[in-house]
Amino acid sequence: xxxxxxxxxxxxxxxxxxxxxxxxxxxxxxxxxxxxxxxxxxxxxxxxxxxxxxxxxxxxxxxxxxxxxxxxxxxxxxxxxxxxxxxxxxxxxxxxxxxxxxxxxxxxxxxxxxxxxxx
Length: 119
Fold this sequence. Notes:
There is one protein chain. By secondary structure, the chain is α+β, with helices and mostly antiparallel strands. It is 34% helix and 36% strand. The chain has 2 helices and 4 strands. Strands 2-1-4-3 form a 4-stranded antiparallel β-sheet. A hairpin with a 5-residue loop joins strand 3 (51-54) and strand 4. It starts with a strand and ends with a helix.
């Protein structure tokens, strides 16, 4: 058995869908004997996790599975191994840098509170 990373894409539709197209790209671990099996398993995850519900203003929200857009075999499970990368381009580099620092601060604070809860 081998580990794979699969990018599973969902489209999010609120109400009648009269809004900017919104997609959720999820990177998932999949355990399989081959890339073909991993792809099929990832598609099954997507199919199984489609959802629809009513939001707080009673609009139907649909999470529709689109497909598996990427699949990568993980070869070496070692400390520091790269498992995902994406190039971002932004008009305001300083603003993006600040967003990253704010997310890092939030992540550190959340992890610290989780440790304290375990004590």
